[in-house]
Every structure is written in C-alpha cells, then in structure tokens.
Design brief:
InterPro entries: PHb, PHb_sf. The protein has one domain: Bacterial Pleckstrin homology domain (PH-domain like), CATH 2.30.29.50. 15% of the residues lie in helices and 44% in strands. A hairpin with a 5-residue loop joins β4 and β5. The chain is globular. It starts with 8 loop residues before the first strand and ends with a helix. 24% of the residues are buried.
C-alpha cells in the first residue's frame, strides 16, 4: 500500500494511460471519470472510488494499486481554478488514513468528482 503519511500530496496532470492500467481492476458497471499521472505514479477517479497507482522499482514494472472507496471518506475540501491560477485541489479525509491531497494542473472535472464523493457520503 502507498505510504500516505510520507506521500500525502499527489501532483497530477490529466493522462489516459492510467485508465488503461487499472481497467482489469474495475468491477462490472464501474466507469472511469478521469485519469491522472504525476512523475511516475498516478490516480484514477471512477464513479465509485479513487485508485492510486504507485510505480515501484527501477524499471517501473512493479506497481501497487490502492483502492480508496468514496464511501470511506469522512470529509473533503475542493479548491476550484481561478482566473490566473488554473490549478485545482482536492483534500480527502479518510477515517483510517487521514488526509490525502490531490493537486491537479489543467482541466479537471473537479465538480463532478466532488458530486460523486458527496453522493457516497450522504448515501450511507
């Protein structure tokens, strides 16, 4: 599992590669909303969860996939893009992990992701 205490911030840019990487992990009916990549690692937001991908080793062939279901989120915060600052941010608080922060550059469906998280929290 990803060490979220030492790696609590993911700086991400839209990239469809990780959507293909996690395709075999999706359950029937689960849909990918957006896929992002940092230097080596990535994150995929589906309609049910966040899948964090941690690339390991020198060759990058070993990968760790961590599933973070929206239903386990206790609180979250969204910062939308502004006129000059086009980056968006999402802070997600999990009951067992603490805070995981995602920083996005470029276009991000942050409002759609926010809506899905809210639906999961309120449907408990």
């Amino acid at each position: 599992m990803i060490d979220f205490e030492n790696k609590a911030v993911f700086k991400l840019k839209a990239n469809d590669d990780y959507a293909e990487t996690v395709a075999d992990l999706l359950v029937p009916g689960e849909a990918v909303l957006a896929s992002f990549k940092s230097m080596r690692d990535g994150a995929v937001f589906t309609d049910r969860r966040i899948i964090a991908v941690n690339v390991q080793g020198l060759t990058g062939s070993k990968r760790d996939f961590t599933s973070l279901p929206y239903k386990n989120i206790v609180a979250y915060s969204v910062e939308t893009a502004g006129t000059f600052d086009m980056d968006t941010e999402l802070e997600v608080y999990f009951s067992t992990l603490g805070c995981v922060r995602f920083e996005f550059s470029g276009r991000t469906p942050i409002k759609e992701i926010s809506r899905l998280i809210s639906q999961a929290i309120f449907s408990r």
